[in-house]
Design a protein that fits this description.
The protein is mainly β and 149 residues long. Helices cover 0% and strands 38% of the residues.
Amino acid sequence: MGAAKVTGESMSPFLRSGDAVIYSRRVESYERGALVVCDIDGTLIVKRTAAIPGDFVQVEESGRVRIESDGEMREAEGASTEASAAKQSSSGMSLEIVPRQIRLKGNEYFLLGDNREMSVDSRTARIGPVDAGRIEGRVLFVIRRVGRS
């Protein structure tokens, strides 16, 4: 088990800055849509698994993500589907989208924030596809910050 604090609004409206998550480290694989905690350069971030190993991912310049799995192409789910003209997230990280078409390897996941306009995620050069070894675990519980409805 582990705990992580949510910073920024990349997962809003589901998670907000100041919320905390409790996660399980005893997970061998993750399904599409799972909330996970990931270590990016020593910082724990919370994102959603949009694509899993073997999926084909297409990232457009607009930030829109399409995923082919089991022979079916679909748009990635989330609070918003395209990035805004913003160049930085609320935490000051680059939101520069890298257009690409990739097939995820047997140990790679494509992670997205629910609030695409404010999310530094697998669409960016900073993160890209995430190796399973960088995923700390699956979120089990959310603890809402005081004063949040």
